Amino acid sequence: MFFFLSLASTVADKIHSKMGEGTFGQVLECWDRERKEMVAIKIVRGIKKYREAAMIEIEVLQHLGKHDKGSNRCVQIRDWFDYRNHICIVFEKLGPSLYDFLRKNNYRSFPIDLVREIGRQLLECVAFMHDLRMIHTDLKPENILLVSSDYVKVPDYKNSSRSPKDISYFKRVPKSSSIKVIDFGSTTYERQDQNYIVSTRHYRAPEVILGLGWSYPCDIWSVGCILVELCTGEALFQTHENLEHLAMMERVLGPIPQHILKRVDRHAGKHVRRGRLDWPEGAASRESMKAVLKLPRLQNLIMQQVDQSAGDLIHLLQGLLRYDPLDRLTARAALRHPFFAKVQLRR
């Protein structure tokens, strides 16, 4: 408590609340007495690896800020300082993450028009970063924030059998579709032979799992997974194990091409036998097999959730979720897809 009181006396008149917490540290909502506005201060733990990631994030944010004219959907850094071995980064204050919004909405899907609007902004951010030769590497709903916390309640027609008096008959929909991407601590510049593991598990591209090296397309795969999650309310690949993850991909998207499986590194090679994925023979348990078998094909999954624009969305997702990163859509190409032809932002 003394640390936060001391911090408040140094940089802000008042700490209003704790906005979030993670392995890196905490995010506090504070009043900035100089700018006379509410800000979010990310306080990073005083441990070497977290300090190093924070300094990378600051460098990336400052570089992005030099090129960002305010329309590229990256969070704005206000300031930063080192306080008692804690890196503190001051950001503009934003609303909840897409994940938090889904969670508080009982993991119910977003309307398709909102998915379209959010998807376009997300791809604009990714295209902007890729043009600057930067790869985010950790795109996920937790790292995409709504600009505003405001929402409206609308009838949930998928639960229309329930009475309007039942609170679960209604679901929340954000008033504004405006988003910004955060957390650039894992961002890297494009270079050769990037083989280390990146991305949070559910949003990790196949080339990362298979040890084939990765580049810009790993962000595109993550975007595809995020768009599916916004349509369904749940993560597409809910797993924590490599072989099961790859088997889930095959269940949803079809077989992994042989020319990719032939190139896997020695660590991932144990998941391949006779030129195909070692599944279900290599499954860790019956539960693992059931988890894979219950997944529908991508087309069926989307058609279960989306009434309008399903065909365009499926075609777009098939381009974002191609196994071969060389064949995957770029962010710029994805933005030209017919799915985004009717985008109209809610301010």
UniProtKB/TrEMBL annotation:
Query: What Pfam families does UniProt report for this protein, alphabetically?
Result: Pkinase (PF00069)
Protein name per UniProt: dual-specificity kinase
The EC number(s) this enzyme carries: 2.7.12.1
GO CC, any one term: nucleus
Task: Spell out the family assignment given in the record's similarity comment.
Answer: Belongs to the protein kinase superfamily. CMGC Ser/Thr protein kinase family. Lammer subfamily.
> Which InterPro entries does the entry link to?
CLK_kinases, Kinase-like_dom_sf, Prot_kinase_dom, Ser/Thr_kinase_AS
Signal peptide range equals none
Give the matching PANTHER family.
SERINE/THREONINE-PROTEIN KINASE DOA-RELATED, SERINE_THREONINE-PROTEIN KINASE AFC2
Which CDD domains does this chain map to? PKc_CLK (cd14134)
Name the chemical reaction catalysed here: L-tyrosyl-[protein] + ATP = O-phospho-L-tyrosyl-[protein] + ADP + H(+); L-seryl-[protein] + ATP = O-phospho-L-seryl-[protein] + ADP + H(+); L-threonyl-[protein] + ATP = O-phospho-L-threonyl-[protein] + ADP + H(+)
- Domain Protein kinase, which positions? 13-340
GO-annotated molecular function: ATP binding; protein serine/threonine kinase activity; protein serine/threonine/tyrosine kinase activity
Identify the taxonomic lineage of the organism of origin: Eukaryota, Viridiplantae, Streptophyta, Embryophyta, Tracheophyta
Sorted keywords for this record are: ATP-binding, Kinase, Nucleotide-binding, Serine/threonine-protein kinase, Transferase
Enzyme class, first EC level, given as a word: transferase
From which source organism is this entry?
Answer: Salix purpurea
